Amino acid sequence: GAQEGQVSLLVLKFGGTSVADVEHIRNVAAHVKREVEAGNACAVVVSAMAGATNQLVSLVEQAWGFKERQLNGGREFSAQYDCREYDAVVSSGEQVTAGLLALVLQAMGLKARSWQGWQIPLQTDAAHRAARITGLAVEELKARMTDGEIAVVAGFQGIGPGNRIATLGRGG
Q1: Residue-by-residue DSSP string for 26-71
Q2: ∠76-130-143 over CA atoms, to 5°?
Q3: Type and span of the H or E element at 142
Q4: Of 42, 104, 122, 136, which is least packed with CB atoms within 10 Å of its CB?
């Protein structure tokens, strides 16, 4: 069991529908505040707001010209875009949610900070769009949490070889 004075480390995960808009994010923050008031040190892992990742994927497709190339006789069609850049774009949805939740928690008078995968760092392999976690350095994160700071972590992402953002695949 927990020793006297020892703080419990709690990891909470909220998917896209739970953080669909700022009102939903406020509900998540209220839940987190209750956990902090109960004496838990919290790490909160968040997804992109509902629909955000699909919008970002659509932007990647537009930038690469999927539709245009397909309509142009189909000869030029190629899905072989740079997956590292795809990851840089689509991982931004989680960054937005993490920052917004940290702001809401701060507005409620709590100590909070957002973390992206590369800041922890959460190391991955080079399988962009479906990366696997290869390492996780939690010392600083844990120290800040036990000092009363809520860690709001952007889910779905880490840092791969070559210092590139890598996504863990849908639901990652």
Answers
A1: HHHHHHHHHHHHTTEEEEEEE-PPTTHHHHHHHHHHHHHTHHHHHH
A2: 140
A3: helix 139-146
A4: 136
Residue type, 74: G
Beta bridge pairs of residue 122: 136
* Residue 140 near residue 103 (C-beta atoms within 8 A): no
CB atoms within 10 A of CB 43: 21
Q: What is the pLDDT of residue 70?
A: 57
What confidence tens digit (pLDDT) does each residue in 137-151 have? 999 999 999 999 999
Give yes or no for a contact between 155 and 120, defined as CB atoms under 8 angstroms apart: no
- Give the residue ranges of the chain where pLDDT is below 70: 1-5, 66-79, 170-172
Task: Determine phi and psi for 52, rounding to 5 degrees.
Answer: -65, -45
- Tokens at 133, concatenated: 């976690």
Q: What would the two tokens of residue 55 be?
A: 């919008």
Structure tokens at 54: 């699909």
Length of the chain: 172
Structure tokens at 43: 């790490």
